[in-house]
Amino acid sequence: QVQLVESGGGLVQAGGSLRLSCAASGGTFSIYAMGWFRQAPGKEREFVAAINWIGANTYYADSVKARFTISRDNAKNTVYLQMDSLKPEDTAVYYCAARPGTGLSTIAANFGSWGQGTQVTVSL
What is the H or E stretch that residue 101 is in? Predict the structure, then answer.
């Protein structure tokens, strides 16, 4: 199982940007598809974005499409989530997750490894 550590969260004003990073260790990063999920207080964890093993295919939740960009650098064992035009409703704990295999997925149950999460707070 690969271990994941997120970073880059924080407090930002609406309209601002943040870039989250997720560093992987303990496995062959390039054979994992990766995803970002988020969980706001009182709500269920929801899918945000996913990327396949080589970064050729990506998929986004409708709520973040055209504002967020997922990418990966297999040489650095890291996946990123660039978040632009942030809104207060983007406030949540953001988790990265790894799924063995080359194809991307939007379903949390398909991901076997999870990071501890990083808090993103967007103020008005």
Answer: none
